[in-house]
Amino acid sequence: MVIPEFCAWLENTAVGSSIRQSTWLFPTIETIHVLATVIVVGSVTMLDLRLLNIAYRDRSIREVHEDVLPWTWTSFAVAAIAGSLLFSSSATKYYHNVPFRIKMVLLLLIAVNAGFFELGTYRRVANSDRESRIPRAAKIAGAVGIVFWIGVVACGRWIGFTK
Amino acid sequence: MIESFCDWLSNTSISLTIQTVMWVIPAVQTIHILCVAIVMSCMAMMDLRLIGLAGTRRPVSAAVSRFVPWVWGALPVLLTTGVILIVGEPSRELLNPYFRFKMLFLAVVVVITFFVQRLNKRDATFWETRRILAALTGVASLLLWVGIVSAGRWIAYY
Fold first, then answer.
1. Best mutation site among B81, B146, B153 for testing chain A: the one with the most A CBs within 10 Å?
2. pTM recorded for the entire structure
3. Which of A34, A63, A71 lies closest to B149 in CB terms?
4. How far apart are CA B38 and CA B50, in angstroms?
5. Exposure class string for B63-81: b at 16+ Cβ within 10 A, else e
6. Measured distance CA(A88)–CA(A83) in Å, rounded
7. B128 C-beta neighbours (distance < 10 Å), count
8. Could B57 and A63 be called an inter-chain contact, meaning their C-beta atoms sit closer than 8 Å?
9. Nearest-CA distance from B34 to chain A in Å?
10. Are A34 and B153 contacting, i.e. CB atoms less than 8 angstroms apart?
11. Contacts by B142-145 with C-beta closer than 8 Å and gap 24+?
12. Contact at 8 Å (CB) between A61 and B56?
């Protein structure tokens, strides 16, 4: 199996071992990870709530999508880089950590859900306004997004309480 | 004074329950962070609008009246979950300088947000016509919220 060897290599790189040995690097990168994560989750939830017809009802789905998602993507890039750096500090430990694994699976499912929405459903609903009925596929995408992101945050927090 | 209060609080039965039931603190922290996500994103969108960097197709007043109510809705949940965490680990929070900074920043930003909303309600063009004041207010609010989240995370490292 190649992943355990990759983890062992990663945590012994200069980056991984500096983060592990420093007193301030881990908390600082973790703070950036949390700041970026809350923006990702909060902003994507704005779109999800629009898809569920709960928030932003006076605006088209396209407008919410255009206003909100660039911030989601930018923050996601930051969260992913910061998260990878945190992972590199103790890669083997995280690789064997159950909540970490669940979190990664949830992120994968979120990517699938988002991919389906962006490549298919979105084109049909982009111009939905106050009067438009929102198709079931879009509502499901929104609900699934919210539930899975809650799961990601819960697992992320749970990692900190496991060895 | 605060030390003895912490000692007393950490020996109450409710605190002992929170300390011994393993899942309470992570579960409450998860709810706390989810509410932080709501508040942080709403305030970032409003502050970026005040600065002129996001949602510029719509007026400032629309952003203020859209986003601020979510903050007032989430804050009681944040305070409740925060109090549960304090009751569970009183000295971890109350004797912690990061916690004190967090509360100070929070008090200031709540006052700023209140006035942003109040002035907007009185005159919908207030922030639209005062570009520099709006931008400065947006920057101050954003920095304070970033400070609140950062100090919140650093509580764990004191």
1. B153
2. 0.95
3. A34
4. 18
5. bbebbbebbeebbeebeeb
6. 9
7. 13
8. yes
9. 7
10. yes
11. B142/B43, B142/B44, B142/B47, B142/B48, B142/B51, B144/B105, B144/B106, B144/B108, B144/B109, B144/B112, B145/B39, B145/B40, B145/B43, B145/B44, B145/B47, B145/B105, B145/B109
12. no
What is the longest distance spanned by two Cα atoms in chain B?
Answer: 55
B97-145 tens-digit pLDDT: 999 999 999 999 999 999 999 999 999 999 999 999 999 999 999 999 9
Give the domain ranges of chain B. Answer: 2-157
For B128, which DSSP code? T
CA B147 to chain centre: 10
Best B18, B34, B39 residue to mutate vs chain A (most A CBs within 10 Å): B34
Q: B38-77, pLDDT tens digit by residue?
A: 999 999 999 999 999 999 999 999 999 999 999 999 999 9
Q: Cβ A157–B33 below 8 Å, yes or no?
A: yes
Q: In the numeric block, which tokens belong to residue A2?
A: 């190649």
What is the dihedral sign for C-alpha A91, A96, A99, A101? positive
φ, ψ for residue B73, nearest 5 deg: -75, -40
CB atoms closer than 10 angstroms to residue A78: 17
Mutual angle of helices B97-122 and B24-51, in 10-degree steps: 40
Of B31, B33, B38, B43, nearest to B114 by C-alpha is B43
CA distance A51 to A143: 8
